[in-house]
Each structure stands twice: as structure tokens, then as C-alpha cells.
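Sample 1 of the test manifest.
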Amino acid sequence: MISDFVKSVQQGKIDPVHHIRSALEEVKNINQQFHYCTTIPEQSALAESKEAKTGRLAGVAVSVKDCICVKDIESTAGSAILKGYHPVMDATAVQRLKDEGAIIIAKTAQDEFGFGSFAVNVGIGMEIPKNPVDPERACGGSSGGSAGLTRKVSFPHVSLAESTGGSIVCPASFCGVYGLCPTYGVVSRYGLMDYANSLDKIGPMATSVDDLKLVMDIIGHMDPRDSTCTGPQHAKVIQKPRIGLLKSSFAQGVDPKVQSAVREFVEKLKRSGFSVSEVELPLTEKYGISCYYLISMCEASTNLAKFCGMRYGAHEPLDGNFNEYFSKVRSKYFNEESKRRIIIGTFARMAGYRDAYYLKAMRVRTKIIEEYKKIFTSVDILLSPTMPILPPRFADIGNLSPLQQYMMDIMTVGPNLAGLPHLNIPAGSVEGLPVGMLLIADHYQEQTLLACAKVLE
Amino acid sequence: MMHTDVVIGLEVHVELDTMTKLFCSCPTKGSESPNTRCCDVCLGMPGSKPVLNSKALEYALRLCLALKCNVSKELVFSRKSYFYPDMAKNYQISQYELPLGAKGSLTLGAKAVNIKRVHMEEDPAALTHPSGMHTSSFVLVDYNRSGNPLVEVVTEPDLASPEEAREFMKKLITILSYLGIFDVKQGIIKADANVSIKAGNYQRVEVKNITGFKDIERALQHEVERQKREVKEGKKIMAETRSWDSDVGITRSLRLKETEEEYGYIFDPDLVLIDITPEMIAKIQSSMPELAEQRVVRYINEWKIAPIDAEVIASDKLLSDIFEHVASHVDKPYAAKWIRRELIRVLNYQGKEMPQNPIRAEELIMLITLLQQKKITENTGQKIMELLMEGPFNIVEYVRKNNLEAVSDTGVLERLCREAIAEHPAAVEDFRSGSDKSLNFLVGKVMAKSKGKASPKEVNEIIKKLVR
């Protein structure tokens, strides 16, 4: 546990320089086979470790998803178009970790700009991260590198990940670690390279509930540099939350082995005296995915416009007019998935389609939030498997049935659209592969989620 | 409104005079050296986030109220997407379906020009073409301007001539300066105009990039003439966007016109919706400065100033401010007359506008006091006003040194008049038989004897009295 490690550092029993040096060696070794890191900033990590004697994370090795800016450390959001970009500032969340003595040891691999669920849509020329349990399999996405590294390393470590539509809990589930996606706005997005600003949330991954809680306590605060940041609103922790099982996620399209693994944990909750009932979210199930993709792609297509080879990142020899030059850079350095989302997102907000797609999706989103708000009057926590399948082999990703793909998205997209806090809890394993259980709570109920996870730990 | 021969609608962009930019804390003024007043937000760095400058909102609301707009219940920003090298993010944070103000009006004499909308947006960066706009093979970008706060005022197509467009711009600038939200000396005001003529079936052409109120008349006159010529030559007016080249005095076709819908607007998800409460509006309403129209009424009713003097003075905030200062020390109607006639005369003579006026209130008070006490003649006063254009000096000292005190001692004046009467008996006779010309001749003689220091009016009275 991190707090024990930190105590030892503060008492001088562990030398952070020595510790970070061996941690870096381990990460480099792991990375050769598993490709979790886009950058391993050895020099700055060693330099920082010399100062790390105080703080709640004194000397703790932390990895940061590539889309979260770390000052002077190459940060590319997993895209070749940002190759060579060294941010001028630390993201607020990174700054807060550093202030507590954390050492940034890696930027972690992801789907380019977060566009994917398997971390296979990596940037041009980049490596695909592999599942820590079976390198033939995907580690989930988009925060695949963060999840894989968190599972694989032997030293105390937490990772800063990010979720737009499920990018924290999906890889946490496939890799068998804890991942918390907080309420939208609790953690500052300042310094986060945007995928879809109204959906993006920074959150931690760890191997224990206490570590998760510690990082949340550190990063979850108001920040005047992000207008949408509210910080935690200190909601009252619900002592014995009423559990609602999402009926449709224990049904067709969800691997029965995954279902029964999660059911075991449900039984455990029942035995501990939690009330468990079945609930449904018909509107979210019907419209959630189209709503999510419309909004996220519309926002993403505007966010990605700034990458044009002019101010930062990849450049090309200057020729032609600006349109030709911008197109050349963007054609060459964005991957296929980015291009697809830019084109669809641009289409959905253009003349003649904006009302039917973008504006309608915005209205549906409000309805979905209302549906969740209503259900939280009868239950306190929604429970389902995090992923409907076991981590797939790379070769099988293309063969997933449309229903399986739909179920993969629908489990995580709802809480992300509604900005609700949700948490992946490792729920044992099937055939040696990790299974994850998803808990969703009402806005600002992170502490209730963590308390519930603690019961199951 | 489509019955006039010329139909013009304006989109006016005004730079708000805030200390810092619209979405970050970089200063709007200061170093002119390129790219020295910018941060991650102005440059659109990945990870940067905009945070609204509430002063800019307050200023924009003042304008909405002054233009009698319906004010939106909430402030919502949108992203306007297009690729251009002056755009840090390749989208501009602006407002679209929910502008801050709508359905306002601005009065031009007897006419009300309808204001369609007033909205807030950020300024793009400035492009520099090192060897000229059309010849330079590359362009440099200066982000000092990037993110400056702008308001856009969009009129209905209610303007019927280039002159009227000019009057509109002038009136708008007056309002802006009264509101204290625009720097008249350094602030930038730009307009895009939609112009159509009856002979061209009112096909609209957009003319972009017109700076200041003087250029607007020129640019629009040119465009109206161009359209008339096209029609005469049997050509069809194209729906297009043209750019005004002030140096050459022509408009050039930029591109076929696109519509607003083609900018793919979405709500800016980085900025939260801000409620504009009745309390907020009431607070701004109560702190609204006095506007030109209100000053005119006060000048006429309370200060008994001639309507023409009141109108002219109030139409220029700087002029009006100087006048207010001066008027608190001297006779108000008298000061108004002098400032309206003489200050403007000397400025016009030197081709200057109020922002370049070097004459301070202190000197005007001194000068007008001397005039009012008849210590100097109006003639001398006019000369001193001209000299003040070169810079301030001690007027009392100057008058004494140059021996310019008006001869107002009745005894001395009477002596000079008697001398003149004695020296010109023929003229005296002519005057007696009704010749005003002879009276003027005699007055002239006395003025010469006094070396211009006598008041002609007083001399006139004395001669009349002595001759009868």
C-alpha cells in the first residue's frame, strides 16, 4: 500500500533515488514486451526523486496517460501529429501529484486521442500495449498503458488515466486493477488534451481501494483554470447503499462466465446486508450510444482542428497555401480512426444536419441524465459487469459480433454521458483472465463508491 | 425595408477596453513587440482552457442596454469552426443561436436603425505580410491580439446610403465612448457590410475589413458604384465576399459567400453557461454612465445652453468631458459657445480630431474667464486659441507680456473715440445722415488706436452716444 511506502520514505528507511532508479529499470524491461509507455522520462524522474522526501506521495512512482500534459516531457495524446511536443505547463492534476512528492516515471500508451476501446488505435509508428496477463490479448482502451502498467509493476504505483466514454473502467477491467472515473468536473481538466470536453474526466488507477482514495483526495479539487471544474461537493457518504443490478447486463450478449463471476460478488454484498434489486434504463440503452458518439465526435472534430503543423508537433516542409499545407500535415499524421471521427463529427454539425444530429443528441443527453437521476431515488449504486467479454485476443477484435460491441459500449457510455462517478472493481478471474465489476453512483458520490469497494476488497 | 435604392446592413466589431483578454489574464495593451503578450490559451496550446473575463461581460451588457436590446437570460459561447492561419485553435469562441443581446435599436435623427444582435467573441491573431498583402510569399503571425475581447453589433439592413452608414458608425462610437467600454484613442473598430442595390435585384455582397467610420463611407460608395457599373454592363451581381483595400480604395473578390450555418457551430463545452440575472442587469443599469442624449437634455434644460452648441458638444465624449470641466468654473452658455465654435475651428484647421486635441481644460478656463471679464477681446481670444494648439502656456502672463489687455476703461475709450471723431468730420457727417458704413469706419479707426485691444461692440456704443 502506498501510505506504508510513503511512511518509510518519510522516515528515511527507503531512499527514493535508489527506489526510482530500480523502478525505471523495471518499467523499461516491462515496456520492451508490453509497450505501456510512450515516454519514460528517466532524467527528470531521477532528478525529482532527489527532492522527494515529504508529501502524501513522497517518492511514489506515478505514470500519466499520454494525453495529460506533463511540463517539458513529451506528451502526444498517443498521436504522431504531436510527436516532439513538450508541454509548457503541468496539468493541474499532475501538479497536485508532484506537489505531494510523486515522481512521474512514464507517459502511458493509449488509443490516439482516446478514440477506441482496445488501445489498438495507436498513433502512426507507435506500439500497441499488450494485456499483462496474456500478451496475445488487448489490455482495453483507451487508457490501456495506464492499466497494464498498474497491473504489471512490482513497486507501489498509481496511474493518472482519463475517460471520455469508458476509457478508465474498460482497461481497468481487462487488466484487473481498480479504476475510478470521478463525477464530471471534480478533477480539473486544465492540461488535459481534449477528446470531448463535455465528457472528459481525469481519474486514478491503482491496485487497492486505499490508493485510489488517496489519489482522488489529492487531485479532486476546484481549479480556477478550468471553468467546468467544481471540485468535490462533499456529498454525504451513504452507509448501506441500495444496490440496483442493471438487468440488461446480465442477459444476452454478456459472456455467461463473466456474469457468474460478477454474481459471486453480488452474493457477497447480499451476505453483508446490502439490499439488491433489479433495475432498467430503457432510454439510455436505446439512445445512449448514438447520443454519445454524436456529441463526442462533434466536439472532437473541433478539438482536433488546432493540430495543423503550425505551432507545435509534427511539421512538414512549407509549401502550397495554408489549406494545402494543413491538409498535408493532417493527412500524414492522424491515424484512420481520428480521420473517421473528424469527418463524422464535422458532418453532424454542418448545415442541414446540425439540428437532426448534434442538437438532438444534446437534448437526448439531458433526458438520459434525468433517467439516471430518477433511478437514484430508488437505488444508490448501479451494478453490472464492466465489460461483457473477457479481454479479447488481438486477432479476434475484428470478429466481435455487433451485439458484443454494442454491449461493450453501453455498459460504460451511460455514466460517462451523464457525468456520473463509476468504478471498476477486479472481480476475480475466468480462465486466468481478469473480470471487472462496475459500480455507478449519483453525482459527487465517489466516497460512497470507494466505501462500497472497500467492503468487497 | 427593401424599397430604397441602396440597402446596407452592418456587422461592426468593437474591441472592448478591458485590461485583460477575454479568456485568459494576458494584458490587452503593453508591449508591441510580437508574441510577447500571450500564453497557452492565446496560442491554443493542447490542454489550455478558456476562463471568462467577467469585466468583458459587464462591458458587453452595458452596450446591450444602451442599444435597448433584449438581453439573453444566459450567456452561452459557441465554437465557430474554420481553418485560417490567424486562428490559434482553428475555431473562434463566439456566440451563435443565443446572442447576448437582440432586437435593439439606435436612433439616427428621426430614424431608428434596428439592431439584430449583439454578441461577444474573441479576436484572432494578427497576420503580417512582410512585403505586402498580395506579393508576400509568407506571412508572420502575432498572437498579442489573439483573444482580445470583441463585441459584434449586427444591424438589420436598415441603412439607405453610405453616408447613413457613416453616421451610424459615428453614433455607435459616441455611445461606446460614453459607456467607457472602448478606447477612442487606440481601440479598433471594424465593420463588414452587406450591400445591395435595387438595380441588382438586391443581391447581397459582403464587403469585409473596413476600419473606422471615415473609411466606411468611402468603401460603401465604391461598392455601390461598382454594383451599378456591373448592372449597366449587363452583368449579374454575384453573392460573394469582397475585401476592402483601403490603400488602393477598391474592393476585391475573396470568395463566393458562405452562410453562417456552414461554420458548424457547437456550444463551447469548455465554458459553463452563465445566468444573466435581473439583479445583474439592474446593477449594471444603475451604474450606467450618462449618455450623449441625456447630456443634451441637461445642457439645454438645466444649463440653458443653445441647442446647437449642446448637440455638437455632446456628440463627442472627449469634447463633452472637457466642456463639463470648463463649465463648472465659468459661465456655461458662454463656454459652450466658445468651445463649440473656436475649439472645433482650430482643430479642423489643423486637420485634428478630439483624440489629438492638445488644449487642456485649465487653459480653456483661463481663456474663457479673461474673455468673460472682458480682459481681452474676442479677437485676442481667437488668436490665443490658435497658439494653444502648439502647447499649453500661461495665458495671463502672455497677455501681460504682449500688452494685450483689452482697453475697457471707459475714460480711455471715450478719449480715443473723441480723437477719431475730431479727425474724421466727413465720416461723422455721413453717419449722421444714416450711413452704417461710416460708423464701421470710425470704429475701425478707434480699434487701430487701441491696437486691437478695445471691444468693437463697446466702441460702437460710445461713438453712437458721442455723435448723437
